[in-house]
Design a protein that fits this description.
11 strands, alpha+beta, five-stranded antiparallel sheet
Amino acid sequence: MDNVNIEKLNFLRTQITRLSKRRWKQAKNWQEIIALNREFLLDGRHDRFSSTPYKCGPTDDPIPLTDMLLNLHKYGMLLTDGTLGEVSRVWADGWRQTRSLPTVNFFLRDEGPSTKSFLQQLLNKDHLYVQILDPITGGSLFNTKPKETILDMTRQADALKDLGDQVWERCDVRPRDGLTLSDFCLENVRAVADEPLYLCFVTLDDGLNELDERTDTEFLEAMEGVNILQEIQSLAENTGIGRNQPQHAETNHQVSSFTRDWLGRGLMGFHRRLPLKVIRSMLHERGGRRAQ
């Protein structure tokens, strides 16, 4: 790719990133933040390049996952990451096979008794690993099990045909003590920093223990039977959190749709002509690190 194309791509990416940061900083309340994050997910769903303080670049989530994440926003949750369980086989100095458990990360505003009831019921689910942090101090407020849990597992082989004979290596995730708003580049967004918030991380508790010998297809089918996003939505519905959350709230500082579409579709149309590995290297995440 020549230098002119690199400059064009960088220019468009920079403009959208600046536009996004300005809109988030200008948000007047939590409802506008939720609306902006919904907009980010919808932009990715409709092939418009978009950005947030915590992630630069379009989302590449499958539509069913995006729809579930969008649904949770109506309960006043700020979703920053989520999966339904994934499998992959890639070449990286040898073939690597990975199976990842479903996970979700979200900020939740403290609205009193309904919030406390939601969190307590979430913590009481024996098959889930749940950690709840204070996003200002990074301190752990609640943790179902103060130990490592399994998030994914991998195995490697020089030849693809030999992958099935290799032993799985489990990848442990330690409790996430220390994560704060600054890790998501949200510490200077007043509509976020001024709210009483919880930072929540949820996954299955050692959910790979009985799945080592299954095929990838069987693994994914098993993950469909433990949809943690649907469980969280059911708890939110039953406990009544977010009932005062305006549905699809509009921000008071809307940028014209022409400007957003021109920037977003212009960049998406431009980078479709580029090799995928180049796109990924140039549209890497910036801002806060996504919790892994």
